Amino acid sequence: MTVTIIVGGFWGDEGKGKIISYIAYSEDPFIIARGGVGTNAGHTVVFEGKQYGLRMIPSGFTSKKSRLLIGAGVLADPEIFLKEIKETGCSDRIGLDFHTGIIETQHKEADKKDKHLSEKLGTTGTGCGPANEDRARRVLKLAKDVHELQPYLTDVSKEINEAIDSGKNVVIEGTQGTMLSLFHGTYPFVTSKDVSASQFCSDVGIGPTKVDEVIIVFKAFMTRVGAGPMPGTLSDKEMQLRGWTEHGTVTGRERRSAPIDFDVARKAIRLNGATQIALTKLDIICPKIAGADSAESLTPKALEFIANVEKETGIPVTFVGTGPEAEALIDLRKEKL
Ligand code: GTP
Ligand code: IMP
Ligand code: MG
Q: Is residue 236 a part of any domain in this protein?
């Protein structure tokens, strides 16, 4: 029995969606529960020839057997939630906590209109910040108050704790990245909540003693979207030269990029108590490994990159991403280097 949490190590968009979709379809955990802020997250999942840009439904929908849950600490936008249920066909196995907070039109409008939020901070405009303000004021509507959500409501904490007590595997998926944490990140250029492993436990209602593994996802280079500092940020020209350009899943905005800063990586490992690393997009640094799914395909350059990450961080790299598809991944838990 294992309880595993997946967290982002930088400023979000590290490829958590891809790692979770792989773990889900290859291991069929009993429960996959989503923590994190809300619809500001955009996880890309490429599975069975189709690309999904998910903002509500857990990326682990790729397991056809797992129960999919959204915790009380998350913010839900009912329209997006219902739309993604249809897209992913998970209506019979998705559950939302009675106390999940609800994003309403006024929250999205406030997020877009407020100059401090939209211009200074460069928020996603999805209403998450204003909804969390209302939650702190204790006036936010909860899922139990929304008619069309009634068929999906459940006690997420109870379901997960019962599964853990009966020896089942549970995966908790986080969103955003540690450097966007309201408490530990690059304040004020952060999101409206903590986004570390401890917060994700709270979001879904489990205590810290229940967690076995924390997988931290690092991209092979760092990216950031929206305002705020990122050490080593490259010029547009240099970014293009290296092929490190990306666009946001939610807003379509261009992401800035930089080489991995190991002070940032070590800080993120510390804040999350991370036990292993999933390293995504190594195929962008080492194109020869594109699409590879076995350790035999790793070139000397790729092996050197992995060895350096392990030396600098002191924890093992257990997954290597070699392409956007869930299957384009080397699972180093199965194969020793
Ligand atoms: P947030 O919850 O918003 O932080 O998102 P995320 O961590 O799920 O990442 P997101 O899907 O927003 O961005 C990651 C991007 O990298 C997507 O376009 C993925 O398809 C892509 N990607 C992930 N892993 C790999 C990989 O190993 N190789 C390549 N080439 N692309 C990858
Ligand atoms: P908010 O979370 O919409 O309030 O935005 C605050 C900051 O966090 C902005 O810089 C956003 O771009 C960033 N942000 C929030 N969620 C994500 C995410 O999932 N990926 C990347 N950046 C994010
Ligand atoms: Mg994203």
A: yes
